[in-house]
Structure of Centrosomal protein of 128 kDa:
Amino acid sequence: HEEITSANRQLKMEREVHQQELADLRSELQNVKIKHEQNAEELMKLLKQEKDDAEAQIRMLKMELVDEKNIVKTQYRQLEKIKIECDKLTEELTQNEEENIKLRRKCEFMKKELEKKDKQISSEDHLRRMDEAKLQFKDQLRHLEMEQESILTMIGNEIDAACEIFSRDSMEKFKVILS
């Protein structure tokens, strides 16, 4: 009977110890759960903040990209206009050079004609008339040469201006395109 009583007491004490340990473990588990929930909430807050920051940065980068694309389009249109203008000026230069060649041929022809007429004239009356004609031809020749010089000067100035416009700030304008 004493052994049973002693065993019962022993069991009772062990049960109390186990129940105390169980209560401690439950309390510790509860604390760990609360701490885990707090950590999860903090992590969710941090993730939400990082997500919001990343979305804001993405929006800003998209706006910058749109701006840069618009700048590139504008610069491309300007480049196309400049190319078209250069092509026009080159074509005009070619035409003027062809006209210049024609004028030179005409001038040479007039010189030869003048020389032929000079040789054919024998009398002084004819010589005087031919001298007048020669002066007229020389005046016409000078006039044609001045006209040719002015045309070539004008074309040269237009080409210089177009090339200057084309080359001005060209490196800055195309950095965006290159990037």
About this structure: The radius of gyration is 51 Å.
